[in-house]
Amino acid sequence: MVARLWQPLGLLALIAVAAMLFSLAVGSAQLSAAQLWAVVQGQGDALARTMVIELRLPRALSAFAVGGLLAVAGALMQVLLRNPLADPYVLGLSGGASIGALAAMLAGVGGVLISGSAFLGALFSTFLVFGLAHGSGGWTPSRLLLTGVVVAAGWGAVITLMLALSPAERLPGMLYWLMGDLSYARTPWPPLLLLIATCVLLIPLGRSLNVLARGPQQAAALGVDVRPLEWGIYIAASLLTAAAVTTAGSIGFVGLVVPHMLRLLLGNDQRLILPACALAGGTLLVLADTLARTMIAPEQLPVGVITALLGVPTFLFLLYRSR
Amino acid sequence: MTRLATQDLIINVPGRSAGTALNLTIEPGQVWGVLGTNGAGKTTLLHTLAGLNAPRSGQVCLGNKPLSQLRRRQVAQQLGLVFQERLDGFPATVLETALIGRHPYLSLWQMEGADDYARAEAALEALDVAHLRHRLVSTLSGGERQRVAMATVLTQAPNIWLADEPTNHLDLHHQSAVMALMAEQAAQGSAVMMCLHDLNLAARWCDHILLLYPSGEACWGPRDTMLVPSALERLYRQRLATVEVDGAPVFVPIQAPLTDHE
Q1: Which of B141, B157, B173 represents a domain boundary (last residue)?
Q2: Is residue B257 part of a domain?
Q3: I want to staple A67 with a disulfide (CB 3.0 to 4.6 A). Which of A51, A199, A273, A282 is the partner?
Q4: A310 touches chain B (CB under 8 A)
Q5: How many A-B residue pairs are in contact by the CB < 8 A criterion?
Q6: What InterPro entries does the database record attribute to this sequence (chain A) (predicted)?
Q7: Residues of A in contact with B106 (CB under 8 A)
Q8: Mean pLDDT score, B190-212
């Protein structure tokens, strides 16, 4: 039983480590395997060490954390809403975060204030959607989903309005933020620690989530306290998404596709899927970010474009050959 | 062994003003059949007894404790519910589906062990779906899915069974097999209550009957006092002919106007 979980997770962890090393070695100055090994051991020339440890490592760790957070948040939302199309952004979270970030950029502030403003926007949107979906009756998954989709559409219109009204010199920064850009990431530790903490907390809840995926009544009949669990998932998924969006802007696609790919390959046991999402989502974003900063170096591409270009064909292929 | 009892229970059916207050006691070993027309509240009654729906008034007691004071997990270790309708959710195999019956017994960090697998396999065997164990539930026929749902509750091994139309979608042989399984559970000390539409299954396999009228009225008692043609004709607003086969009454609906009641 336990081997059934550890084998795929071990494999995914190995792939993740390989992706990290690749991302550390590749860039404007390429490092050979020997040079990278020297740096990892704490030797090598000072320039290479500075480049790897102070520039590439934090960025790769940020990418890993953001990808992992988005994929786990997507997997949670899909269980909560029992809808395969749910992803961290469908409930209007990224829209709220984008408005916060763009407003800060329009106001001409930078750095921490953009992140803080994005975080507040995401939380505001979370509570707005939840409050509206609750309405006069209780909330149901379909009502939550519809409310989120409509609020997200509203945010989309506001974002377009802000872009139309903003001065031309600020536009590139705004567009990059909207497509996701890891050069905004400062320190990787907050999202990374959040990701680890989430995985540790979710593992014991995995079996309850398996039961919840079969519907709230079935779950209640099998001894799950459904309401607190659903609330917990919603709040957790919102926080994870807000943290990811705050670190790297709105990167689409990871939260939708990574959980599905893993479900097609590994089945539907959430005890396996959730940690696997953390590893595979992280790996996907590390690779995507490495490509984003090297393909047309010294220019950078928005990482969201790469996640989509990598993920769409892979996902369609897996879906096509699934039974 | 636990008994299920209700005290002045009125179930909460939307749009219904009142109804008979139910004071039922379902003892270990008894098999209860709930009969009633569509919309009479049979499913609502079972869900209320399981604690999934709040009653309008009164309470349900599991053993000697009100259901509302028990944790869901404690309830699930004693009481199992076979749903009439099931969501598909994400794809799952037959064996995985049966295994979730062990959920109430496993602690947070525990994985299913060999014993849990053995129970699930035995339940699949008992419901004649063991050969489907690696199939996805979504690819099964209605009757096979019904039997998988029964197997999940059998894996849960409750000593109170609430089954909402357990013979739905089943062919004749499997209807009989499922009813025999319920009787066997009762013989081993479980209390069983099921909603049924088939009067003849109720007449053959149940020892107590609860009649539920659309108005919210209800009456209950031992089978032989309840399954009388006049009461059933009033319940279903349908003329019935009665014949006796193997010592049990068999009811056949016939085309004739009701004369004795409105």
Answers
A1: B157
A2: no
A3: A282
A4: no
A5: 77
A6: ABC_BtuC-like (IPR037294), ABC_transptr_permease_BtuC (IPR000522)
A7: 207
A8: 95
- Which residues, at least 6 apart from B246, have a Cβ–Cβ distance to it below 8 Å? none
Closest partner residue to B91 among A2, A223, A268, by Cβ? Answer: A268
Identify the H or E element spanning B125: helix B114-126
Residue pLDDT, tens place only, B25-60:
999 999 999 999 999 999 999 999 999 999 999 999
- In chain B, which residues have their Cβ closer than 8 Å to the Cβ of A269? 96
CA A72 to CA A196: how far, in whole Å? 11
Mutation choice for A interface testing from B72, B95, B161 by most A CBs within 10 A: B72
Q: Which domain holds residue A87?
A: 58-321
* Paired tokens of B157: 């091994």
State the Cα–Cα distance between residues A101 and A248, nearest whole angstrom: 11
* pLDDT score for B262: 46
DSSP A240-272: HHHHHHHHH----SHHHHHHHHHHHHH-S-HHH
Pairwise CB contact (< 8 Å): B90 & A263: yes
Whether residue A191 lies inside any domain: the answer is yes
| CA–CA gap between residue A106 and residue A38 (Å, rounded) | 45
Q: Map tokens 């199992």 to a residue.
A: B80
Q: What is the ipTM of this complex?
A: 0.91
Closest chain A residue by Cα to residue B138 = A323
Residues B62 and B111 in one domain: no
Give the mean pLDDT of A227-256. Answer: 87
Q: Percent of chain A beyond pLDDT 70?
A: 97
* Mean pLDDT for chain B overall: 92
Do B130 and B177 sit in the same domain of this protein? no
The alpha carbon of residue A294 is apart from the nearest alpha carbon of chain B, in Å, by 38
Q: Smallest CA–CA separation between B172 and chain A, in Å? A: 27
List chain A residues with CB under 8 Å of B99.
none
- Cross-chain Cβ contact B87/A214 below 8 Å: yes
Which has the closest alpha carbon to B176: B156, B204, B148, B152? B204
**B153, closest residue in chain A (CA to CA):** A222
Q: Classify strands B57-62 and B218-222 as parallel, antiparallel or unpaired.
A: unpaired
pLDDT tens-place string over residues A173-216: 888 888 888 876 678 888 999 999 999 988 889 999 999 999 89
